[in-house]
Design a protein that fits this description.
- Helices cover 14% and strands 43% of the residues.
- It is mainly beta and 407 residues long.
- It has a 4-stranded antiparallel β-sheet with strand order 3-2-1-24, with no helix packed on it.
- A hairpin with a 2-residue loop joins β12 and β13.
Amino acid sequence: MSRHHLPEGILLDICLRLPLKSIARFRCVNKNFCFLLKSPNFIQKHLDHSIERDKFSLLICSNSDGKSSVHSMASRSDSSLSLSDYKTLEIDYPFKSQKPLVEIIGSCNGLVCLELNRRDVCIWNPSTTEFKKIQTLPDEFKWRPKSSPESRLGGEKAHSYGFGYDSKNGDYKLVRFELSEHVMYLSTCSIYTSGTNTWKNIPGIRYDVKPGVHLDGILYFSALRTRNHGDGWIVSPFILSFNVCDESVHEIELPDGLVGKVGLNVSVFGEKLCLICVIHGVHNELWLMKDFGENKGNWTKIVTIDDCLKGVSYLMPLHFFKTGEILFELQGEEVDVPNGVLLYDPKHKRNAALQMRGTHQLFGMQSYVPSLVSLKSGTFVGAGNSRNCKARRKAGKSRNYKARRKA
């Protein structure tokens, strides 16, 4: 009896629509399946398909009694949010047995960058559990190598990060800014390249830089600088852009009228840069930058959130739905405004809070696209996937052999 095989193109199209766990199982069917579903072509197509279908998950770090836990919250809907569609699930993470304080640096292509104990850094794919520990930053690259670290649970950090993808070389980079201990608004910049597992240093950056976001090969940071205006020096905010490929740096001016307002943060809206301005006691504004030339951005205000969110000290978009709804991470400055997740409908000016049971004091959130992107590290959280895969193949061959003998 002849065997009928599906054309490879149809097989790939079917697999693109499967959950990640199913794809992982199918890799264990035989070597041909494994080769096909681990190919860079399929991994990239799967990533593109997930982005197009608006699939995302949330990673939530919480803290209780000096101990961190990490929860995942996956969407069951492709284009809109129903609060009942989401459940939090505590998951294992790299070096969990060491009980580190976990903070999220950023995400890119389904990979999440974590900082552990405000000292060590690792890149992690929560979907496949693969991770890679980043080489420790050399002491000579630091402003304060011998000074004691900030409080393990509090205190403002003297450093910030940006995590992005170099499409030219097919590599991931981590950019670290550390503020000088003695000179105001002076930082050192260190760049880590995953492919070579090395750091390099760019000293003397005259900015105070906050955490950044990645968009199309560019890292964007909100930052402060000093300028001489004749009668003295003034501090002014701006957007710092860092090209991940050629490592060039540019300054982008804020929209007119925003200079001097407090609470500036950057996020990503679809394929555009989003600026969040929190004006305490008044309202919150979201601005979109369509493009920029030289140092001037083309900004448009898209949302004004009025006094329906009184008592909110921090507001950060986690996901923009195609329906127009926005999922926010929020932190309250008052007791009756708890930290958590908020869904906001700008069209009807309605909001709904999402209660996350099982989590404690929130320490940070990050949205990411579930993906199969590999770090080629060979290290995984928990049991070794390669051994499990081989065991499933062996069990499958045994069942097939017994079935043939019985027939």
